[in-house]
Amino acid sequence: MSVRLSARVSASALAAVLALSLAACSSDDAGSGEPGPTADAGAAGAGDPAQDAAATDDPSESADAPTVSVNVERGATDVPVSTLVEVTARGGSLDEVKVTSDAGEVAGTLADDGASWTASDRLEPGTSYTVSSRAGEGDATARTRLGFTTVDLSLDEQTFPSVAPLQGETVGVGMPVIVSFDLPVTDKAAFEEHMVVDSKPAQVGSWYWLSDTEAHWRPKAYWSPGTEVTVDVDVNGVDAGNGIYGQENREVAFEVGDAHIYQVDARAHQMKVFSNGKLLRTLPITTGKPGFTTRSGTKVIMEKFESKRMNSETVGIPQGSSEAYDIDNVQWAMRVTNSGEFIHAAPWSVGSQGQANVSHGCTGMSTADAGWLYAMSVRGDVVEYTGTDREMTFDNGYGDWNKSFKDYQAGSALA
After folding, report:
1. Which of 1, 28, 29, 351 has the largest CB neighbor count within 10 A?
2. Cβ neighbours of residue 351 under 8 Å, at least 6 residues apart?
3. Domain at 49-149: CATH architecture
4. How confident is the chain (415 residues) per 10-residue block, as mean pLDDT?
5. Dihedral sign from CA coordinates of 80, 85, 89, 90
6. 386-409 burial code (b ≥16 CB/10 A, e <16)
7. Which residue among 260, 269, 344, 360 is the active-site one?
8. Is 344 a catalytic residue?
9. What pTM value is reported for the model?
């Protein structure tokens, strides 16, 4: 779960402003087509919507004067935050458009023919905006100014995205991009359209929605070492369905490190450690004994602990059972499943390592070997397990590589 924010942060405070000087002034009402009284079209900042509704336009005496319209009703007080403001000119081209609030200007793009301007950013809740524009045709111009206010939203009506990996993190070649939301997203397609993963070099990939609150993205094959990745979750103001909207945009950049692939053979009781295709070491290990069989499949290192307490009650083995354990200081522990499988130092089983499987599902090795492996490993490194009849499940940790890419693509809301 992410921590809820107490205030909503604007995703953009910049705007595109285009200005040219023309001689005469004329207009009609942008909201209704009816002319209104004269107003100062150059005023900046958010005005009172009621006042803007009453004093906004400079009427034209020319029948050929351009007209300007806006897709938001003048004086409205409940405009959805998902709105992208659009300003359109007829009989002329737009010379200037400003959409402003106390937070600054809203960015937008002018069409090549000058006939329309569309905001790049959606709106903030409970905020007053002013739209001022000017269109020209020959010696005639039309100026329009109007105000409106967006609907206010509580935190229970906004979903906040948390992103993994973290900004600036270096991860392994198996690391998925994970976006978690603190409130459910029911219109997943609308959100996915605004969630972009860009990589250099470019790699084909897909989103997969595990639930209403969690989406993963992975490339078709493991990341190429050295890849630079940018994740742009542009969901601020996007309608998530059921009266919930995106609370904030997030952009995260991370890098992919060396290709660490660890191959565990539970039958042979060994782990082969590869880095960028080169075999570095073959380590004697032990895995799960009968009744606690280690899962076969592709796992990914999720988190690391120099020292971790391991208690059997956390994996369903009650205190007082003959299989119960409570070890306060397990060294060099790296989690590979949600269900409690780790790679860690197991000095108590050194006599069985390389010969027998005696653990409760974890992969144990000597303290020296575990420390060496821990030092070179990062979140996202891949551990491929074979040799057991118990299969790794897709949702047990970062299990993204246990589906074919075709099946993974089917989990996209846009498939």
Report:
1. 28
2. none
3. Sandwich (2.60)
4. 38 34 34 35 44 48 78 97 97 95 96 96 97 93 95 98 98 98 98 98 98 98 98 98 98 98 98 98 98 97 97 89 92 97 98 97 98 98 98 97 98 98
5. negative
6. ebbeeebebebbbbbbbbeeeebb
7. 344
8. yes
9. 0.83
